[in-house]
Amino acid sequence: MPANSGNKSCSGGASDSDIAANFDDLHKPLNALQAIGAADHCIYCYDAPCIQACPTSIDIPTFIHQIRTDNVMGAARTILSENIMGGTCARACPTEVLCEQACVYNHGDEAPVEIGLLQRFAVDHLMQAGGAHPFMRGKETGKHIAVVGAGPAGLSCAHRAAMLGHVVTVFEAKNKPGGLNEYGLAAYKMVDDFAQKEVAFLLGIGGIEIKYAQTLGENLSLQELLENFDGVFLSVGLGGTNKLGLDREGTEGVIDAIDFIETLRQTDNKAEMAIGQNIIVIGGGNTAIDAAVQAKKLGAGNVTLVYRRGEDAMSATPWEVELARKNGVVVELWAKPAAINGDSQVTSMTFERTKMLNGKLAGTGETFDIIADTVMKAIGQQLDIDPLKGFEIAGGKVAVTADFATNISGVFAGGDCIATGEDLTVQAVEDGKQAAHAINDFLTSEGMHNG
After folding, report:
1. Helices 152-163 and 194-203 meet at what angle, rounded to 10?
2. pLDDT band at residue 17 using 50, 70 and 90 as cut-offs
3. Considering the chain, what percentage of its residues have pLDDT values greater than 70?
4. How far apart are CA 28 and CA 428, in angstroms?
5. What is the pLDDT of residues 197-220, one digit of tens each?
6. How many CB atoms lie within 10 A of CB 269?
7. What is the rounded distance in angstroms from the CA atom of residue 113 to the CA atom of residue 118?
8. Residue 274: band (very low, low, confident or very high) from pLDDT cuts 50, 70, 90
9. How far apart are CA 267 and CA 253, in angstroms?
10. What is the dihedral of CA 86, 91, 71, 161, to 10 degrees?
């Protein structure tokens, strides 16, 4: 997001104290008494559906029972044994469509168990207690693995590989680790620099080094990685953003929502952020919601989220959409971008009404304008395939087998750069964990073969 320019103002006129309050924890953590009460609500189902709904297969009834019996450290270990980034996932995971949606209480009139908050209670307790890392490194294997990308998938892979006895070097393009957790989630979901605290905790297992400002295809060569390491895990994330395909898309004030979110996350004093008074956010996913809500929290007067289809087609969860409305965001449905207006600076956008016609989205010819000094595009990201020459690409993602192997021997991939379902932190963590086991199997079988 650019610094003060044009008709943008810092924090939209809101006071520093207002901004600080606006970016406080979205979900207040449970205290010990509240956690016991929430744990008492669980009936510890046999073949619990919440476990099936969790991409990392955390034994949810067990960790909740451990909280209930005052074994909070044990509960944290149960969580972290399957999801080493359980702290972030407890804060940002859409539990309302995963584990909590699967809770059997949803079949009746009672509210589901507060699994996310209970998970946060346990993991935070362990991290705040300090002490030795809860997991030990395995016996040294003599193998050295390269991980490209210090996001959730890469860090998860690195940690599990260390548990398996391998040495790991992580190559990260930015100057801080964390990937989406550090740069892409709303600030009110990740307060108190939690992403960096979690990385420091994860690295506590030992055997993992992170090298920064290392970009594949620029100062990092796949060939060199293959020559110098025994296995490679690719977790580069999605670097490109989709375009509207309209004239004047490069006009001042038309930006990518992910850039706005990243800049905001890296700004210590949120009140110093420049924000316009009339904001349009285009998109229907969680990134669009995060951008729109944060614009309001910064003090923008009018924020309109525009989506081309109906609400049921939005990839953002209903809970997130309602969060936007509660924060004063206007949600405009069935409208697609038609024109960006303004010469050197965007002044408004023209949208065309849409409808479904014979199973396809079609314009109706009816148009309307929305005044804007800032337009944020959140219409999806794409993989930058330029640095990935030699890899098989399918559907815009790196093609992998069931065990995360690419078409290049010794190179595995996971996270958002492959197609394994939802682009969620929790799925990326699972990809990294499973890929570490696949790499371990590859190295073991290779060693046996060479022997």
Report:
1. 20
2. confident
3. 95
4. 25
5. 999 999 999 999 999 999 999 999
6. 11
7. 9
8. confident
9. 19
10. 10
Question: Rounded to whole angstroms, what are the CA distances from 4 to 12, 319, 374?
Answer: 11, 33, 12
Q: Quick check: 2 pLDDT over 50?
A: no
Kindly report the CA angle at 359 between 357 and 362, in degrees rounded to 5?
40
Q: Which among 240, 151, 258 is positioned nearest to 198, based on CA atoms?
A: 151
Across 134-180, the runs of DSSP E, i.e. the strands, are 144-148, 167-171
**DSSP-H helix ranges across 307-424:** 318-326
Averaged pLDDT, 168-192: 96
Where are the alpha helices (H) located in 187-315, listed in sequence order? 194-203, 222-228, 257-265, 286-297
Beta strand spans in 325-441 (E): 330-332, 335-341, 348-357, 360-371, 374-377, 381-382, 393-394, 397-398, 411-413
Lateral strand order in the sheet of 208-211: 208-211, 167-171, 144-148, 231-234, 411-413
Supply φ then ψ for residue 332, to 5 degrees: -105, 115
| DSSP symbol at 206 | S
Task: Name all domains of the chain by residue range, CATH numbers in brackets.
Answer: 32-129 (1.10.1060.10), 144-239+383-450 (3.50.50.60), 241-377 (3.50.50.60)
Query: What is the predicted pLDDT for the residue at 12?
Result: 56
What is this structure's pTM? 0.93
Q: How many other CB atoms are there within 10 angstroms of residue 102's CB atom?
A: 20
The total number of residues shown for the chain amounts to: 451
196 CB-near residues (< 8 Å, 6+ apart):
176, 177, 178, 182
Supply the Cα-derived Rg of the chain in whole angstroms. Answer: 23
Q: Residue 6 has what pLDDT? A: 41
Quick one: which of 407, 415, 412, 355 has its CA closest to 381? 415
Lowest mean pLDDT among 5-14, 85-94, 300-309, 342-351: 5-14
349 to 251, 274, 354: CA distances (angstroms): 12, 21, 16
Average per-residue pLDDT in the chain? 94
